[in-house]
Amino acid sequence: MAPQFEASSSLSLPPDIFNAMPELDWFSDTTDIFGLDFTPTIDNAIERQLNGSFPAEDCQNIAAEHDGTCDKHVNDSAKQRHAIFQRSLWLWRPDANQNAFSEHNNIPMNERSIDMGASPHQPYLPSLHMEDTLSQDSRDRILQLVVKTAKSHVSIPSFPSTACLDTLLKVGIAKRLETDAWIHPYTFDSEKTRPELLTALIAAGCVCFGIPRVSKTGLVLFEIVRVALNQLAEEDNSVIRDLQYLQACMIWIDVTAFCGFQRKMQIAESSLQPLVTALRRTGKFDHVSYTKTRPCASDQGDELEDKWRRWVEDESYKRLVHHIFEHDIYTTIAKERQPLISYAELSVPLPAARDLWLAPSADIWQLVYDTKRFPSPTSDTISLRDLLANPEMVHCLSDLVDLRIVRTAHLSGLAAQCWDYFQQAKVTSSVFTSSEDPSTKLWMQSRHQKLYQSLQSAKRTTHTDVAVTELFAELLMMSLHVSLDEITRFAGKCGEAEAHRAYQTLQPWSQTKQARIAVWHAGQVIHFARNVLPYQLRGADGLMVYHAVMVLWAYGMMQRDAARRKADGKEPRESTTSSEPSTFLDDMTNDRTNDFLLMNTGRPCLRFSNTESGTESQACDIRNAQGVMAVGIAVLEGNLPNEIRENLPQLTRSLCELMKALGSLK
């Protein structure tokens, strides 16, 4: 199901953030995945402290002295920034005969028991009590899958015990329950589950365990799952209509799409299309594929059990569809690519309430259903498309639906509409488009205002949800007021000429109210990123934090350059330090915020604290490029306490290293 990638020696293709993510040698530091060091003790996990990235005292410095023309400075800086992207040793260029198993041809699996207390992520939900236990037969099926798929490419002298695999399996299922819960734990039967899905869940459990060696084991197993699923679809086309097959595909795409290794990320991104196509052609995006199943007071015994299981299967498809749509939109925003699913085609009914979904038995499902508010005749058919047509319906939904999924889906639908607006804005701003067309201008202004108001309204409904949802809402409001494409081009994505052209566009933008609104929302992204639970800021949300930091950095660079132009190299350096009161963009709204947004008064700053010394937070002027990047690094690293940078998830480490390199430039 994944396309073949052709190697290219051309250096003309524009690099992007994902060029700064490694592929080769990611597995070279260990050869014994399930060996004696498989599970380090908790003492080893916390014996090293988080290293600071930048000295906190540097955060008050604003601008370097001007020693040449601004154009020369911009060109020199652009050349350096482009070099940071270009000289990376991690740019994936496939070698001849490179394949899924060429990186790890020897994995002796001398397993040692996994201690759940050793995981810093606390990956096991205390409330999860699954009756199912992995059997020896299921373990053998998993081993057969691994051996059959890896063939002679990987040596496997031993394999983990049944108890070890059962623990990792439950961790993998538990992590799916933390957000939209699209794997049903209480009808899960390992004896009747495809080995591909079992292996995918075990691999997800490894990645979520939080110990580098265990996480890397999960990535190896995901390679095996990916190849096995492709082979299975080639041998039997009917599996693409099987729920377990689709769930296994989604699990490995979910994890590897933001794992930080470029080869895996590219393949995962391209493999989402076959999954979307399979669900679309099965009709699972349309409400006609779903039946209305409700328990009756007279239902009991096998009849009630059968009805419950039919209901669970329907709900599994609903939740899978909404999860894929959310993943697609996150990928669209984080990686700036076209979405694969249209919000207008999703007439699938909204998923049922979480307590109904997680009812451990048919009897409890029936009891919980009886306590729900009786819905209107049409409430069972309300879909995301209906919510986007009439946003006020979000406040009037029955308690039979999962409100957290509804709010997230509604926000994702608005994100898709924002993407449509971005594309239209690019067309209308083309040099070949007449800029004097009043109807086009009016429509764009009206659409922009409507989207912004809708996002503000949606943001108010998500205040009880996880911080990542609020972070996403703030990022969308930020992106309505700035072109992220221009920001990344200014950062050196496409070379010196494009960086200079983007500078010419961003300089006048930086003096507008639109720019101040953008950096305000970027600061709010930082604010909510700090509130994300530990070890959760490591996927698309990590890239969102990076985008917000880059907007703050670019605005600060524009403001600093404007100050250089105004000073014209004649005023002493001390005069560049403003005596205005600080306006903290990463705090909640206050009077100073309104003064900054409306009248451009106040000194826009971020809070920076040295986590190593424990000192109080200091004001970091956003015209200090190094300080802004230090704040971004501190947010990402702070979400992974007691971890040194070498042990951070690969995506987080790559982002931190890129921000550090860009921040070090003058």
UniProtKB/TrEMBL annotation:
Residues 183-427 form the Xylanolytic transcriptional activator regulatory domain. The keyword Zinc applies. InterPro entries: XnlR_reg_dom. One of its GO terms (molecular function) is DNA binding. The keyword Kinase does not apply. It comes from the Eukaryota. Residues 564-586 are annotated as: Disordered. One of its GO terms (biological process) is DNA-templated transcription. Keywords: Metal-binding, Nucleus, Transcription, Transcription regulation, Zinc. Pfam families: Fungal_trans (PF04082). Residues 564-574 have a biased composition (Basic and acidic residues). PANTHER family: TRANSCRIPTION FACTOR WITH C2H2 AND ZN(2)-CYS(6) DNA BINDING DOMAIN (EUROFUNG) (PTHR47660:SF8), TRANSCRIPTION FACTOR WITH C2H2 AND ZN(2)-CYS(6) DNA BINDING DOMAIN (EUROFUNG)-RELATED-RELATED (PTHR47660). This is Xylanolytic transcriptional activator regulatory domain-containing protein. It comes from Zasmidium cellare ATCC 36951.
